[in-house]
Amino acid sequence: MQGWGIIGAAFLYLLLLFAVASIGDRRASRWNSAPRPYVYALSLAVYCTSWTFFGSVGLSAQRGLEFLGIYIGPILVFTLGNRLLRHIVRLAKAERITSIADFLAARYGKSFGVASLATCIAAVGSIPYIALQLKAVAGSVGLVMDHYGRAVAPPAFIFGDISLAVAAVLAVFAILFGTRHTDATEHQNGLILAIAVESVIKLCAFLTVGLACTFFLFGSPSQLIDQISQSTDALKAFHYQTSIGTWIIQTALSAAAIIMLPRQFHVTVVESRSEKELRTASWLFPVYLVLINIFVFPIALIGVMTLGTTVSGDLYVLALPLAAEAHWMALIAFLGGLSAATAMVIVACVALSIMISNHLVLPLFIRSMAKRHPAEQPDLTKVILNTRRVTIIAILALAFAYYRFTSNNIHLASIGFVSFAAIAQFVPAFIGGLFWRNANGRGAMMGLSAGFLVWAYTLLLPTMAPEDAAILRDGFLGFTALRPEALFGTDALPLTNGVIWSLTANTLFYILGSLSRASTPLERIQASIFLPRYFIATPTLRRFRTTVTVAELKATMARYLGSERVERAFLRFEGHEQRRLDPGMTVDTPLIRHAEQLLGTAVGTASARLVLSLLLQRNDASGRDARQLLDDASAALQQNRDLLQIALDQMEQGITVFDKDFRLAFWNRQFRTLLNLPDEVMQVGIPVSEIVEHLIRREDIAFNARNSIIHSLTASRKPARLKMKSTAKTLEIQSNPMPDGGIVATYTDITAAVEADLMRQKAAEMLEQRVADRTAELTHVNKELARAQAAAEEANLGKTRFLAAAGHDILQPLNAARLYSTALSEKLGRSETSEFARNIDSSLEAVEAILGMVLDISRLDTGALKPEVSVFRLDRLLSQIATDFTPLARKKALKLRVVPSSIVVKTDRNMLRRLIQNLVSNSIKYSRSGGMLLGVRRRGAFVELQVLDTGIGIAQHKLKLVFREFTRLDEGMREAEGLGLGLSIVDRIARLLEFPLSVRSVQGKGTTFTLRIPVSNEPVPVEETRSRRGHARALELTGLDVLCIDNDADILSGMETLLSGWGCNVTTLRNGAALKAFCANRSTAPDVIVADYHLIHENGIDMIGFTREHFETEIPAILLTADRSKEVRQRAEDENITLLNKPLRPAALRSLLSHFYHARQDGSPSQTAAQ
Prior knowledge:
By secondary structure, this protein is of the alpha/beta class. The protein contains 46 helices and 21 strands. It has six domains: 488 residues, Up-down Bundle (Sodium/glucose cotransporter); 90 residues, no CATH class; 107 residues, 2-Layer Sandwich (Beta-Lactamase); 78 residues, no CATH class; 149 residues, Histidine kinase-like ATPase, C-terminal domain (Heat Shock Protein 90), CATH 3.30.565; 130 residues, Rossmann fold. The protein has a five-stranded antiparallel beta sheet. Strands 9-11-12-14-13 form a five-stranded mixed beta sheet. Helix 44 links the parallel strand 20 and strand 21.
């Protein structure tokens, strides 16, 4: 590939950027979609210029890892300082800020001087940085042309340099896409999209070159390591030790630059649309910085070893592919470097053009037209745009001149640090303005001036003066202590020397200047905006008026913004204020402030204030004071709110004002003191409900008092009392409505009055002491009885808790026994001994039933069971009961009759079913002949669900005994076996559901149980019916790969025996460590996971989740547990895990495994279906 081919590709690349930017502008309306945060985050990579692409390698070739310092700062800002970034963006949006100079001017009373000086510093400081890009592009072009045999001779005059053509092309691009609108706060969609694309291109280009150089072009990595170990220059760079001072200086400079460089402030703050974009940038931008620096050091070492000093280290990224004759790789490197340079130049020129036009050029136009009649003043919208276009051309011309007339021996990194140090002069005024309320415009001016002069002397001058200049060698006027690169004999690197002395002078004069005078009213107002106060003004403040009319204000604004935009803005203002603005009406303070903010978007805050103050001066009689009119009008609001706040803070009562939506709008100091509320609660706009919730969380008030407190604050006019537990104070709350719909509430400390009432009550109680003495003996007896009763209840509760806690340990060995017995039964088949195995299994099943009932009682007594209410018809429930119990009744030659009913009820379906099942089972058990009747009788708003039987009956004096646990009557013990727990469970469920339960019985004739249930009028939800799968397919499990996890060795052994007998391939594990080893040594996932919930310091749900995540598939899973709590069941359901309670029924397990087996063969979603 010839050199001119690469140059041609570069121009085609620039045309591609034009196309991308055009597409971004045409599709601006779609920019609120999901990709926007990523485009925003990638546009921040405009920070990575040719300094990053070329210069970092050059610096690394000399100083090892020192280049990382300029990236550590930005990473810290976007990770640890993200909260500060969000605050800066919010301020910029609220104040319509357009640049870093505008930000500083807005903080310091919208100072024209601060804005102008900041603009000059930014412009002068950015010139070397832009020149750096031109130097990099010119160097890369020269290297390409030299390599392909067409050297570029030194030009006879500056216009013969290829970098001039590049500067011209970049100027055209910046003008086309950065100067189309006067509103500097309007988002440059096309430009930002082009910058994001360039960020991707330069990252891909650098990674491609790095991979090629490290792994392919110059041998394998091991060979390169051997060669580097034998290269003296490479080892020197490798072992270079950067001082801690240099690390701190570079990190601090880069942290300041990532926010305060004009281009970075523009893309980070002005172009930001939402905090979501900042959240995305907080991780994506640091990742980008890490990726683009991965291969810097390897490329530097390879370059030093391969090319040495024959090529500048700044060009190693391009020179290495050329040296390896990798032409396409060289093209990629060239385009990557060009992309890095063009992105920076374009955005920097756009940002600087806005600052220079708004704060330096436009004020001159405004002052020159001040004495003209409004009708004679021209439309300035075109003047603003043309000024910005000319400014872009001038900036690039100055950068080109700096590049041409500075030493060619200066490295890219050195030039970049000069610019970083210039921008760092904003730090004292910027950070001080955000945290020091008393800082003012004089301090900012003095600090910026001092810092800028020291920077120019110590850092800028050495880059422009000849290397042997007397001032560099001997100091100013021959004073050695004034040598620029070693000021006052400082023994440090030139960069460290310049940064320390310039920032020291800056900070010192900033503090002294701020302390030399008091802040003006406007500076105090702006300080309160940048450092928020904890109160707001009332809506009824006096409005300051001038003689300027609405028509005159519109005409003035239209010259800068255009008539159409001004009309739209005024219509929005009318809608917000709910009043009409007639052309002849004089303007008031709110309208002036609105106009000032709107003008600020086009000409900056300082120039906007100048425009309006000149307008007021021309119309008002007191022309001498017109320049301060806006300050006085703005200060009126602040003064009134300060006076109001001071007055109310002196009151003993607490006062709050809530708006019509019951959100906090105002409060005084006493309110916060009485309720002891923290800063996060005391915020304007917080709902009254959140304040009450905070008091509940602090346990100052009870949860059930929440609604009454809110009612007392928002609706009731009667005094209400609030007892504060944390402070032991009693407050009286009195609220009254306001005309606008809000409320004013007062809070009075009445603790002393309440305590006085208590003292009077105690005195009255003493008069009754004699009566109390006479009844002391009776009281003592009652207390003893109460203690005895409490002890009995505690003992009963302890028993219940023991049963609940021991359930898991009891069921574990029983579960293992069931597994072994089932496996044995299936293995023996129909042999002679199989009957013994079946008997064992039947006995274990009976033990399971007993333990199940005991555990159910314990869960009911401890409150572990909670009703899950739903609306349903009784007929379906009753039909299920009939289906379940008809075979059992037939075995005893009994007839079970169920009367259908369409009644709808609202209760827990499963609990009601369990209650009816126990009653029907009891009736069948104790009936010798006849039958049972199950039906419903309507009784007004209730139904009586009845179970009638023809059984042995119950004696009248024993009707209450049958509901006690473990209580059996003599007649029943002779009739059937049992534990006496069935009716105890029925009674507990009925009380839990709050359904009255009654019983009537006649011995020898039968018993009737009646349950009274309220009827529901709610509609019955449409129930999805799921057809049961038939048993056409056998429960075959051959080849099913099952993973079993349990900490109990007996359980695992029994499970393995049972599942192996069914044809499964079983793997057993006991803990998480074994599971991790299993996953690490296995490439395919098991078909099914069967896990116990309670493991040692672990649980089965986490084990299942880990296995699924490792194999990246939703493996069907079964959770075995004796814990029947709602929490475990809900968590299993959330994780899509099938739950089987212990003791395990092997038939249920086999059915589930068979379902998973066939679902796997069919490719259906087995887990979901199994639920």
